[in-house]
Amino acid sequence: MSKINYPTLDLFIYNRTPESAQQKYENYWNDLDSKHQTEKKESTSNYKIFCQTEEKDEQIDIYYLRKSIQDTYLLYYNCSQDKEYELSQLTHVITKLKNLAVLPQIEKLDPGKLSQNGYLGKTWMISIWTNDSNEFTQDVAANLYHCLINRKHQHQQVGKFLGAEVWEMWCEDTEWGGIDKDSHVMAIVYPDESKFARGAKYYEYWYDLLLYRHKIIWAYQNGRKLKSQLSEQYDKSLIDSTGLSDKGFAQLKKDLQQNTNCLTTYVRNINLLETQQHTIEVNLRNYEKTCEYEFKTATFLEKFSQIVKQKYQTQLEKDYLGLNPGLAILENVTSTIRGMVEIEQAQQERNLNNTVAIFGVGLATSQLTSAVILDQKSPNKDIPFYNTTAFKSSVSWGIAASFFMWIFLYLIRSFQGKR
Amino acid sequence: MLNHLQQVTIQAFITALAELDAPLPADLQKQVNQVGAILSTQTKRAIDELAELAKHAYINQLYLQARSNIQTEYHTQERNLKHRNPQKESETRNTPPYITENIAKAPPLDLEKQQSILQASDSVKEAQKIRRGLL
Asked: Hey, which of A65, A293, B33, B55 has its CA 20 to 30 A from A108?
């Protein structure tokens, strides 16, 4: 059985941190010293190094780094041991290194997640050097994957980087069909220490490259979620304008309210879907450029670009093209309903105006009649008011005037209608 | 057994002594001897007293210099982290010219899902389902 040297485990976690979680994240970082039972070696505002001493004074180095890259926070965990092991012990060693990680836990989210919808994903990376990489077989890689992710990997590819053999493994996201953002593992088997040392100089580029990768996967999943939400909203909306004329004013107002709400959300989501497409486009470009400039020989990294182009970009483009016409339909139907509601409202207002006019004319005529009659002849005080001529005449003239006013308005409306 | 900081203190003190051009003043020497006498039996007290003695103007500057040197040396020797440079890695790198910056936008959480959590008979279970992506 071959020997392996300097087992190293890296974890790259990417989050877009909302304001609400920033203080909690800061607290986590500040409390990291007290949370580690091991001795602290170095500490700055952006990295911390601890050292755990095992039997025979063998030590494990634990290194945390936090870093802002563009709009994203990287939390990086590295745990390594400068020791030689049998290859058969590797899974056990990696499990040990994994268990030493102290990760932030915000509210009830999984460790490492700083928010529900701003968490981009994580990648585990294992690095070793061995003089006999032939013994690092498919089974060894699969076992390592299982000890980190707790399930079997579904996809893998093997490539070369700086003379090292690289095993890249991941799983599908069962819900959205893309790559599961928590499933990415890379195992890099260097042939000797000098190559291992060279590989260590590439961490700065891995920080960036993995960010682009996770942002693409995250944006794709957002796009798929938005597609699902848009379809639901479309189905819930009123998209058929036939039969609207049979509906009453109250029902039309209710439909208008519902469609206006749907339209607002639909517009927002269709724009966000487009934003996800742009995010994928920009980050794919960055991913490819970083590969081109910094990882020239690591051709296996191109596989991800192919997946993005063939699947992610095409899928979101089709989703957008399929859902965008829905926006025009929704806008049309909503405008139709709004128009009908406005017509109904105008009709109701006119009816009210007519009623006021009819009653106004009736009342004025009635008052005028009673005033004239009373002026001509005062009624006998023994006669009740409802039996007086003035009362009877004013009521009769008031009704007659209202009736004529109604006829007059009716004729005007008919005349206007014919025009 | 001395811990790391105690080792640094005593080593820095001895280094400072070694660099002095002249013997210690008598009173200071006497106190150093007293510390020496209890070092093996009352280590903590001895080191604390040594740290106090190091504040003496006669030796203080050399002591501080020695301590600083030891700590720098200690940091670079004691941790392994082979081939890594945390200081450099933690620095903000200039964005390479071939990189296009991108501000990503997350869709807001689905209001209906939030409502379904609040309205569910078992909200915890519902929330966990959503967190696991089952809904």
From this structure: A65
A85: β partners: A4
Q: Going by DSSP bridges, is the β-strand pair A3-15/A72-81 parallel, antiparallel, or unpaired? A: antiparallel
Annotated domain spans of chain A: 3-201, 214-345, 350-418
The pLDDT of residue A348: 83
Interface membership of B81 toward A (CB under 8 Å) = yes
| Percentage of the residues of chain A whose pLDDT score is greater than 90 | 51
Where residue A177 falls (left for φ over 0; alpha for ψ -120 to 50; beta otherwise) is left
Query: Is residue B120 assigned to a domain?
Result: no
Angle at A117 between CA B116 and CA A180, to 5 degrees: 100
Both tokens of residue B25?
Answer: 């003043």
Q: Could you state, in chain order, the average pLDDT of each consecutive group of 10 residues for chain B (135 residues)? A: 68 82 87 85 84 89 81 53 85 85 77 52 56 45
HSE-up (13 A, CA, CB side) for residue A216: 26
Inside any domain, residue B99: no
C-alpha Rg value of chain A to the nearest Å: 38
Helices B43-53 and B26-38 meet at what angle, rounded to 10?
A: 160
| Count of C-beta atoms within a 10 Å radius of residue A13 | 25
> Does a structural domain hold residue B96?
no
A161-190 pLDDT tens trace:
999 999 999 999 988 878 999 999 999 999
Q: Which residue of B has its CA nearest to A8?
A: B81
Q: What is the pLDDT of residue B40?
A: 78
Chain B 96-125, residues with CB within 8 Å of chain A CB atoms: 96, 98-110
Rounded distance between C-alpha atoms, residue A341 and residue A347, angstroms: 10
Which residues of B, range 35-64, sit inside 8 Å of A by Cβ?
none
In sequence order, what DSSP letters do the residues of A12-53 get, joined into one string? Answer: EEEE---HHHHHHHHHHHHHHHHH--SEEEEE-SSEEEEEEE
What does DSSP assign to residue A251? Answer: H
pTM: 0.73
Domain that holds residue B39: 4-78
For residue B77, the model assigns a pLDDT of: 45
A119-129/A184-190 β-pairing: parallel
- Give the three-state DSSP class for B102: coil
Cβ separation B107–A80 shorter than 8 A: no
Q: How far apart are CA B14 and CA B6, in angstroms?
A: 12
Q: How far is A341 from chain B (nearest CA, A)?
A: 28
Please name every residue paired with A84 in a beta bridge, in sequence order, or none if there are none: A5
Q: Which of B80, B86, B87 minimises the CB distance to A82?
A: B80
Yes or no: say if A65 and B90 are a contact pair by the CB < 8 Å rule: yes
Q: How many domains does chain B have?
A: 1
Higher pLDDT, A251 or A290: A290
Contact A166, A303 (CB under 8 A): no
- pLDDT, residue A63, reads 93
Q: What's the mean pLDDT in A117-138?
A: 91
Closest CA to A226 of A308, A327, A321, A316: A316
DSSP designation for A313: I
Q: Which of A16, A82, A173 sits opposite B82 (nearest CB)?
A: A82
